[in-house]
Amino acid sequence: MTFNHKLVDEFLEAIFPLPEEFGVICYEDENSEPVDFSFFQEAVWDVDPDATVCFGMSKIVIISPNLGNVVIKIPFNGYYMESDIDGNLEWNPFCWAAGSDHKDYCLTEFEKYNRLKTYGLDCFVAKVMFYKEMCGVRIFLQEQVTPENDSYCTRRPSRKSQDLADKWYDEGKFYIEPEWIANCLDKYGKSKVERFLYYCANIDPDILGDVHSGNFGYRGDETPCILDYSNYGDYL
Question: What is the C-alpha to C-alpha distance for residues 104 and 101, in angstroms, rounded to an integer?
Fold first, then answer.
């Protein structure tokens, strides 16, 4: 991965230290008012007007065409807010991330990526690297991938690959867009795709546990990969 080190550091310096309420997207604070996270966007705009901040269920992602071919991923602080049976709001800790730290979904993704590398299957997911730690928070960089729901990919799979992907989908071997699997077949070959699906079914099902159209897509060279594979589905 190639990236602009200086710009990465400028973004991080602009938003750190993180606020105490930097938990999962908390739609309500202790006074039942929406929590305003707009200052994150304003802070990165001050550094780079082309940058955007995207919020997931367990992390924020800073995206800019000036970063190079990476995005910055920062995990939330390990807490979320919900209402109890009486309607009172309370903070609760994450405990579902399937990695060595159950509060850190970014770390989980990093560990999953490295495990896939040992099996020679890392081509199916976006590369991720640990960048640094600031104020006790781990920060990661991931190769930039355009999600399926925002993709302008022009690659169309061969008829043979599409037919096989459709057959596998009907048999319940995966629950992801068959055309994406067909493009995997064309790019990586039938044997490797079968190994990946076996891995996901029998070794690490979390990888395909949350594969909606915003979590898989295509790299700049139109090769298919999954960009968010830490799986927040256990909570949802």
Answer: 6
Our count of domains for the chain comes to 2
Residue 234 placed within a domain: no
Per-block mean pLDDT, blocks of 10 residues, the chain (236 long): 94 90 55 64 95 86 95 85 69 79 91 97 97 95 86 80 96 90 96 96 88 86 91 55
Torsion angle of C-alpha atoms 161, 201, 120, 163, degrees rounded to 10: 0
Phi and psi at 221, nearest 5°, equal -90, 10
Name residues whose C-beta falls within 8 Å of residue 181's C-beta, 6 or more positions apart in sequence: 165, 168, 169, 174, 193
In a shared domain, residues 202 and 138: no
Strands 137-143, 146-147: pairing kind: unpaired
Residue 60's closest CA among 39, 34, 82, 91? Answer: 39
Beta strands, E only, the chain: 52-55, 59-63, 70-75, 79-83, 89-93, 128-134, 137-143, 146-147, 216-218, 224-226
Residue 206 DSSP one-character state: G
pTM of the predicted model, to two decimals?
0.87
Identify whether residues 67 and 114 lie together within a single domain.
Answer: yes
| The pair of three-digit structure tokens given for residue 114, joined into one six-digit string | 């490295």
